[in-house]
Amino acid sequence: MSKTVLQIVVIVCCVCWPVAWPCAAYGAAKGPLRVQNRHPLYLMFLTPEPDSPRLIEKEHLLVSVSADYTSLYIDEANSEWSALMDMEMTVMDLSLSYGLSSRLNIGMTFPWISMNDGFLDGPLEDYHGFTGFPDYGKDKGPVDEFGYGIFADDKPWLDAESGGLHLGDSVVSIKVQMIDARQGLASSLQTLLKIPTGDSKHGFGSGRPDAGIVMLNRYGISPLAFYLNPGYVLLSDPETQGADVQVRDIMTLLMGIEYQADDTWSLLGQINAMSSPLGNTGIAQMDENSLELAMGLCASMSNSMVFEFAFCEDLTRTAPDFTVHAAVRWEIDL
């Protein structure tokens, strides 16, 4: 999907979705899956987390804890750029949202990141051999070893290291309700600001703030719920270790569907699309726009707690080979 096509889709979604004719209440929808693209390139910049237009009640606190485990392999170079990303990575998010009023929520997200050599190279080689899916040359690389470096004109962008648990860039958000869900359509507007709390030298952030805006839409035709979240993100050029790196703003789009099996269980599938912040490196794994497929389930553990699980697969090379995601969300009446 080219950036021009993605821009057109996002614009059409922003204009047309809010005027759709509602036809049924959405019931107890729990989606979308709050899973993000964990490609290290996107990890350094603001990428909106999939979210619901639903607002929590006034003076309630929503706490979300998630853990993602992902694997990635890229080893490409040309006359100007080189990129090595050979790692398994854990990202844990702590998110807090507070209801200032029935129509206004504020939130903060704190990501913690650990990059490691991992242990899945052998099983993944067997998996690719059995299924016939491409492994993009991983079988020719070192087994269970860590590597992460990006260079432009022989100057380093970052100097990554393996191990430890490091704070990434935090995100502050404000969500305002635009349309309630009484007639089946729910829509909210979310603004986001990335705070550069991560260490840019080691690839845990860009060292600069980013800002974005997203429309959060859900349309219910029981027992189904449909999600459409178009967004636009303003990016700042990252701090580097000498390389001259210039980035461009990105367009984002989430498209998802949820089947509510009963009051407890929901099955979900969604596609997360983003345009690349680069585009001129000559390395497809950094220039291509990103498409990632996520499939999973949500379960209501109680009236105030939801558990979710998802498996994500790359549809383009600017997404990890796979990501396993689990999260728990619970709402507290303060």
What can you see in these coordinates?
The chain is mainly beta. It has a single domain (3-333), classed as monomeric porin ompg (Porin). Helices cover 10% and strands 49% of the residues. It has four helices and 15 strands. It has helices at 3-16, 40-43, 121-131, 284-287; strands spanning 60-77, 81-101, 104-116, 147-152, 155-156, 166-167, 170-179, 185-195, 210-221, 224-234, 250-260, 265-274, 290-302, 305-314, 322-333. It has a twelve-stranded antiparallel barrel with strand order 1-2-3-7-8-9-10-11-12-13-14-15. Strand 14 and strand 15 (322-333) form a beta hairpin. It is globular. The protein starts with a helix and ends with a strand. The model is unreliable at 8-27 (pLDDT under 50).
By CATH, the architecture is named Beta Barrel
Order of SSEs:
HHEEEHEEEEEEEEEHEEE
**What are the low-pLDDT stretches, counting only 5+ consecutive residues below 50?**
8-27
CATH level-3 fold name: Porin
Largest sheet: 12 strands, antiparallel, barrel
Any idea what the shape is? globular
Strand line-up in the sheet with most strands: 1-2-3-7-8-9-10-11-12-13-14-15
Total helical segments: 4
β-strand number: 15
Oligomer: single chain
Question: What separation lies between the terminal Cα atoms?
Answer: 45 Å
**Helix content range:** under 10%
Structural class: mainly beta
Considering the protein shown, what is the CATH homologous superfamily?
A: monomeric porin ompg
Strand content: over 45%
Report mean pLDDT, rounded to a whole number.
87
Give the total of domains. 1
